[in-house]
Amino acid sequence: MRAFIAPLLLLAAWTLPSCGEAEYDLVVYASLDKEHSEPLIAMFEERSGLKVRAQYDVEQNKTVGLVNRLRAEKDSPYADVFWNNEIAHTIRLKNEGLTQPSESEVTRRIPAEFRDAEGHWVGFAARARVIMYDPSLLEKSGSQLPPNILAMTEAAFAPHGGMARPLTGTTLSHFAVLCGQLGREQVLAWLEASRDSGIALTNGNATVMKRVCQGDFPWCLTDTDDAAAAVANGYPVKIVYPDQTAELGGTLLIPNTLCMMKDAPHPEAAQQFIDFLISPEVEEYLANSRSKQIPLHPDSKAPEGLPMPYRDYAVLAVDWEAAAAELDAVLPEFQRIFTQ
Amino acid sequence: MTEPLLSVRALRCRFAERTVLDGIQFDLAAGQRLSIAGRSGRGKSTLLRLIAGLQDAAAGEIQIAGQIAMQAGKQLLAPWDRHLQLVFQDLGLWPTRTVQQHLRDALRAQGVRGARAKQRATEVLQALDLSALAARRPGRLSGGEARRVALARALACQPKLLLLDEPFASLDAESRDDGFRFLESVLELSQAAVILVTHDPEEAARLGGMHMQLDAEGHLV
Amino acid sequence: MLSLRRPGNWQGLAAVLGLALVLGPLGPLLWAVLQGGAFTELGEARVALVFWRSVWMAALSASLSVLVGVPLAILSQRTKIYGAEVVALLTPLTLLLPPLLIAQGWNGLTGWDGLWASVFTLGMCFAPLPALLAARALAQQSATSHESAWMMGGRRMALREMLRVARPAAILGGTLAFLFSVTDFAVPDYMAALGETFGVYPGHVYNHFRDTDYWAGARAAAPLVLLCAAVLYLGLWARDRWAGEQVGQGRPAETMPLAGWQWPATLLAWGLLGCVLLLPLARIVYELGVAGPEAAGTWGSRAGESVQAAVERGREDIGRSLRTGVLAGLIALVLAPFLAHALVRRTGRSARLLTTLVALPLLAPGVGYGMGAIAFANRPGWTEFYQGNLLVVLVFAGRFLPIAVFLLAERFRSVPRSRDEAAAVSGLLYPQRLWQVYLAPQRAAWLLAGGLVLVFAVRELDLAILLPGANQSAAVRYFNALHFARDGFVAAFGLLIAAILFLPVMLHAAWNSLRQRND
Asked: Which residue of C lies nearest to B79 if distances are taken between CA atoms?
């Protein structure tokens, strides 16, 4: 028996020290791709000398993710900073009283449309909602790209394209914004119609991008970072920035957002981290990365070939507070439409 | 002279370096009885398994009902074509089947199906006074009952030769008595020849017919 | 005074410790459900439709698992097909791969999508469950019960008897396949995303967990948990109904000669293994270096980069996951034997009810379990405990303890009661008795029970996202990359995790073969 138990005790001795808890100077919840967020957090640790505990999110398996964890932890906050890769949930957290203002000289340099008037959140490094297409597939299909997003479900275009169901991520935010702009009833009717229109409805932007790459259909509505990933993987796809007429208002930009959590255990370190992330250096790093995030800081230099908002294409003006409020109201409706 | 039902010639069987059976040779006529006694581990069960076609030997020939079943130690005839049944020492009952289902399965193997199989199974159970056990599974039978069921199953196949591997081992004297009476009724019904192997000389004597002994060298004397 | 010889005292202690592990996370969930309204939504036509769709889809998947798993078990365990040992060894590997990865593999290979592809994929993913349980049952078939059938009716009758022997295990395996299929959301969601859209009930549950009132998720999950408990109870009842005690002399039944069927049977076995594992695995390997026509480098160079990235970026996460999993496994190794023994000492309805109750932590949705753990452990003064790995270890151990208990209970069932009673009469202390009668002869199974807890702990995603100490783990890195479409990295990292997790199975096989050689 001893000969059997001894190795198990050794195994326990090897693993037990992992139960001890190290001290941290900052806790960050990050929902950005780990491949990009991890090196930036490491860079911050190196420069500041602070020890950061990062917590990451995933969406593919439909976990409730970090947003609900922040809600569940509200009575005894653990996180200092929430680094969200979109904006709507950040505002929802603010409206639920889970964030606190975190303004500084650095945050005030970000354009007003991408930061909260009360200083609860600040945006940086955005993604645009674009139509990605494969020119040769489009030609073979004998169809054309939809002239705007609302035309996507028309009979001439729908069978040749795809989009993610608006239940999570940027697609959810996008349609919440559209509800605010066009009216909830019209968007809900449009989504109802989309189910039978022939447009492919997928579970995420990465999936719909991959289906274009696989040749399933010629175009899709997705994010610029997914389109950039397709290009990086060697697929001959191109991007169109939709809705570039005065009437339609422009392409939707969805920034990464940062907010400091209410009663954050390490507020100074949190502010330091927020200031670091919205610096031109970090934005340029993300713009040059595989995900080609779009810089928002006026001092950030965009890499050559990356179309810039306002300069190269019109950007939809959004009341983010209203969009977040809309999201709360329409999400159950979206779930009703797409969970059948 | 009539052709024997079973003819065993120069049968030899080895396990690794040990010879368990050597030069086994005997004939058995239809309806004849043979008991083979010997101490544990002398190869009695192996001899029955060889006759049943369940394993190969090192050498030897076996003929059953005029057909060559084994040649040069190799089994040529499938067990189910030998017109025999083997009742194993641990009986080999099927744990998920009721007593009646045991009999019906055995009949089905003989090509008797459906209502006929059911009727025949019922008849056998009645003839052997086993009707009360019909719906029971082996796990709910006593040792003596299980042995009677194993014999009944063998009988249902209407074998010409019945091989019994210590069928009453581990039973008390009274149960063994019952068992023997039951065996007699089975043999009366089937008219089958029988080979009984046992380590108990008393059992061998009780069966009647020929008696043989397996010695330590694996010879049948 | 408490006696060290009385099993009840030890089993009671183990039950109290086990309860302590699971009550923290389960308590808030149960409380939320008890607030009422858990079943009102099922009255809505849309929700009821989705619920029943989930039920029949899972029933079909589980049936497919049994149809594939049982032949695999018979062919690999009881015939001499070419490579039988390899088939037996590789069959469980599928359980180590996330079903989503298998789904992606199948879709990549065949282009299948939609509802039927989901049914098929889940059927393949969980076919190893009936296969493994049936193989175990077949290995225990008494030699003479097989030979009786063989003598009377040849191959057909022997095969029929094997199917009867495997039936109780196949029922239990099918039940488990049903439970895993009906609660899986990733595969239906993925297949619905590619083809015709359809919803499943776990999607409805997850949607509610994303509500501002996230306890709505617990209420939405209640009907699914109840269904799972009922199916498990029925599965156990059916298993007991068809079970029979193998009476034999301990000699294992020999493999069945196949004669002219050797090649067709071999092809069938390898074909089934191909569907369950090899084909999707081949596609995953292909994914290592797949890229568009304008990509730089060759497939080989890209695959090499993917593997290198997986090792470099994932090494520490895998190490952390393994440490946590090992500790959870060790806790299970200590508690599971007592609880398993308590289960096998009971029979009939009380055993089935107790088994269903023990399964509860496993049947609760992972997200809910995680939210429950937060509600329980995130409180002032508990910060170190909340953010540390100890909480993770305890939560993982509690959630996956039922797996170890069930595995050991299945093994303990084959030990003759008389052996246990002899040990009791001889006056051994209860732990000594447990060791000598049950554990020492089945060391490999005991280790495997701990190993399975380790495997499930490493695979667990929902809890890893929600618990601070678990977040820097292999599962989070894997699914994070999956979400962001890092295909090569995902393939390489998935294969790396599977290879590491497969180690216990390999060790188990090596142990068995060593033991057989020594015997």
From this structure: C151
